[in-house]
Design brief:
ATP hydrolysis activity, 37% helix, 14 helices, binds adenosine-5'-triphosphate, ATP-binding, single chain, 12 strands, AAA+_ATPase, ATP binding
């Protein structure tokens, strides 16, 4: 099977403008990222706010041109494509944003907004054809009966319904990949599972690959249970592999810390599981990242090599981990077991 998407050493450095009070600063939002995605695969990209997830999503959809590195879609460098191929690529890779209200034009009905997309991409010849297609699409995203939704304005729908519409708009142009950036974070908790199920169905039934961007390990685990995970920290991928294996046996101290911070519903068990003690809770300034391993100022295990040398991703038990000391870091099961016996 040929690869759908490849990122080779991709970086995005933003330069903030000089002002009266500050010098221009370079922010490495995404740094030397390498990724591969197969057709129909789901990749969850997980990390704290500001680690570069959205920037990575915008690079993948071609909204940002990276400052260095190469992105290939179906084997072709997207920034060397001719206009026609690039347009085709932009159609094949759709992005769904977290803020569904901002993503829809408030002055246009749902029909007007979605019809334009179909006509622009020549998937419908006229309004009548577009209406018929949208009818089917709304049924697919379970906004039924469709006639109740098509002539409404975005503010007349709930957040969950608007998010379904964004998914309908994304699949209306028959994409091969959807980049979903925190698609459920602004939706009521009670509706999240049904939206995640909808995306899983789109993946299974339509074969659409997903890059699911989130700060929330629980939803990542749910949607990408058969897929892969990439954990980001300050612009870099620190651990990646099959999601189930990585989360069962997390190796990087940052991922162990993230997992130990996830609330546990059982109060007795929760009392026994200790959060990994980080040296600092503050995220370093991305414009002035720590030397060596970017996680070293917070890492409880850091040694001098971590301050001096940047770790590269290397294979550990089938996953890729960027940590000099991974062999010395206590195994996750052992940490869990010692917590249980306490
Ligand atoms: N257009 C921009 N100009 C300058 N800096 C930017 C720009 N976009 C993002 N950044 C900076 O790049 C870093 C990564 O931002 P990004 O939005 O990609 O992170 P994120 O993980 O998606 O965060 P969040 O979950 O809060 O959206 C942040 O430090 C951010 O301030």
């Amino acid at each position: 099977m040929s690869t759908l998407l490849e990122l080779h050493d991709v970086s995005m450095v933003f330069t903030s403008k000089k002002s009266l009070f500050s010098k221009g600063r370079n922010i490495g939002a995404v740094v030397d990222v390498n990724l591969q995605l197969n057709p129909g695969e789901i990749l969850a990209v997980v990390g704290e706010s500001g680690c570069g997830k959205t920037t990575l999503g915008k690079i993948i959809t071609g909204l940002y041109r990276p400052t260095s590195g190469e992105i290939k879609f179906e084997g072709k460098n997207i920034w060397k494509m001719d206009g026609r191929s690039f347009k085709e690529y932009r159609r094949s890779v759709q992005m769904v944003h977290q803020d569904s209200f901002a993503a829809l034009n408030p002055a246009r009905t749902i029909f007007q907004s979605l019809k334009d997309v179909l006509i622009r991409h020549k998937l419908a010849k006229n309004s009548k054809e577009a209406r018929n297609q949208l009818y089917e699409l709304l049924k697919l995203v379970e906004l039924t009966p469709p006639e109740q939704f098509l002539d409404k304005y975005p503010h007349q729908l709930s957040g969950g319904q608007r998010q379904r519409l964004l998914l309908a708009r994304a699949i209306s142009v028959k994409p091969k990949l959807i980049v979903a950036d925190e698609p459920v974070s602004m939706v009521d908790v009670s509706l999240r599972i049904s939206l995640l199920n909808l995306m899983t169905n789109m993946n299974k039934q339509l074969g659409i690959a997903f890059v699911y961007i989130t700060h929330d390990l629980a939803t990542a685990r749910y949607i990408a249970s058969n897929g892969r995970i990439a954990v980001m920290y300050l612009g870099k991928i620190v651990e990646t592999g099959k999601l189930n294996e990585v989360l069962r046996n997390p190796s990087h101290p940052y991922l162990q810390a993230l997992l130990s911070a996830v609330p546990i519903p059982d109060p007795d068990l929760a009392r026994t599981i200790k959060a990994l003690p980080l040296k600092s809770l503050d995220m370093p300034d991305p414009a002035n990242p720590p030397t060596g391993c970017r996680f070293n100022p917070r890492c409880p295990y850091a040694e001098s090599i971590c301050m001096n040398k940047e770790p590269q991703l290397r294979e550990i038990n089938g996953s890729m981990v960027a940590c000099h000391l991974v062999e010395k870091v206590p195994k996750w099961e052992m940490m869990q077991e010692s917590a249980y016996v306490k």
